[in-house]
Design a protein that fits this description.
Layout: H1 2-9, H2 17-54, H3 63-85, H4 94-122, H5 130-142, H6 147-164, H7 172-236, H8 246-259, E1 266-274, H9 277-284, H10 286-301, E2 309-315, E3 318-324, H11 328-343, E4 360-368, H12 372-391, E5 397-399
Parallel strand pairs: 4-5
Antiparallel strand pairs: 1-3, 1-4, 2-3
Length: 401
């Protein structure tokens, strides 16, 4: 199990600037809580010391030393809190992030050393190591310090403690107890720090791997959506002319019904047919017919000038142009312009009985909007108007009254 932990600690992702920012952000938040807690306790201890001194309680107590220690830790905590407040996780500089981490580790050294000095002073009265032990536990609990750094920190502090404690504690029995107890505490606080750091890094790695997977999934979804969009375009688009087909028209008409369901507006349907197109194909070949369909489609598409216009290839040589909101008179003018501009393309048609060039006939219906069933009825009416235009000689617009 420990081998797995060591593998996690050596994970390359834990050497990235993103990880350093995450670790520093957590340490900044936890460090501020620790600094505020220390300030509160030290102020309380100062007040107790001042009141005790004024009332002559415990004359042997070294008030000057302890007041100096309280004040020094208050100053260090205020400075530490101020530096934590100024931390900017958005800064990309690796040097900045490393220096901030060194700051938190440096505070850990000072905080433990402070507790050690107070514990040395306590040997003259209490013979306990509470200040040292509390500070060790606080650092292990509040700050995320890499195991190698925390091992060196706790080991260095332990060496200092073992070297100097004998100068403050004369009793060999108590001194032996201190050696045993402090050894246990130093080992366990390092283990606690190690476990805390391992949990933090495991959570970070899991979150990072999840984010990587989410990014991969998002990329796959985007690619799938692109495929879906292309397939949908193929489904609703006529491959020869590039115009929408009847499927595309159904989608457009459903939108019209949805938008104008409660709002009456005029909708015009222009059923358009190329005159004598079968004869054109027989005479000029189907390839020439395809080219003609493309040119006429392009010209009709020029009349789509807003979201209220829509043109489709309805089938064979038939096209359907739909407009929302324009009046019948406006649509008659547009239909006539369509007819003239198609003939003005001057596509030769020697087998036509109405012109020397390719022409179109148009059936026009303009009515108030309704439901989908009503729309199908109007398309049928426009088709009837088209046949009427053909009966009357073609190359003209017939308006269904």
């Amino acid at each position: 199990m420990s081998i797995n932990w060591l593998k996690k600690i050596d994970d390359p992702m834990l050497r990235t600037s993103d990880f350093m920012r995450e670790r520093n952000t957590k340490n900044a938040a936890h460090g501020k809580v620790l600094a505020v807690g220390v300030l509160m306790f030290e102020v309380v201890f100062m007040i107790i010391a001042i009141v005790s001194r004024l009332n002559g309680i415990s004359p042997s107590f070294n008030y000057d030393f302890y007041m100096g220690m309280y004040i020094s830790l208050i100053v260090v905590s205020i400075v530490f809190y101020g530096l934590l407040k100024r931390y900017d996780p958005s800064r990309e500089s690796e040097l900045y992030q490393r220096n901030f981490y060194r700051l938190t580790v440096g505070f850990g050294y000072l905080f433990i050393l402070w507790g050690m000095l107070v514990s040395f002073a306590d040997q003259g009265m209490y013979s306990n190591l509470n200040a040292l032990f509390i500070n060790l536990i606080a650092i292990a609990s509040f700050l995320y310090i890499a195991p190698r750094n925390s091992l060196f920190m706790f080991a260095a502090e332990a060496v200092i403690f073992f070297v100097f404690i004998s100068r403050f504690q004369a009793s060999t029995d108590i001194l032996l107890g201190h050696y045993v107890n402090s050894t246990v505490i130093f080992v366990f606080v390092w283990l606690a720090s190690f476990l805390s750091y391992n949990i933090f890094t495991s959570n970070y790695l899991n979150k990072s791997q999840l984010q990587v997977q989410l990014d991969v999934n998002n990329e796959i979804n985007e690619q799938l959506q692109d495929v879906v969009d292309r397939l949908e375009a193929l489904v609703i688009e006529d491959s020869l002319t590039g115009l929408p087909n009847r499927r595309g028209m159904d989608k457009f008409l459903k939108n019209i019904v949805s938008v104008y369901k409660a709002d009456q507006t005029t909708i015009s349907f222009l059923m358009i047919d190329i005159d004598y197109f079968k004869q054109y194909n027989d005479h000029y070949t189907h390839m020439a017919g395809d080219d003609t369909l493309k040119r006429i489609s392009g010209k009709l598409n020029e009349f789509v000038t807003s979201l209220n216009d829509y043109v489709i290839r309805f089938g064979g040589e038939e096209f359907l142009f739909i407009n929302v909101s324009k009046s019948r008179e406006e649509m008659i003018a547009i239909a006539e312009r369509m007819r003239r501009e198609i003939e003005a393309l001057e596509i030769e048609h020697m087998t036509s009985e109405c012109s020397s060039y390719v022409t179109i006939s148009i059936g026009l219906v303009t009515e108030q909007s309704g439901n989908l069933e009503w729309i199908n009825q109007q398309i049928s009416a426009a088709d009837k108007a088209l046949y009427k235009a053909k009966e009357l000689g073609r190359n003209q617009v017939y308006v269904m009254e």
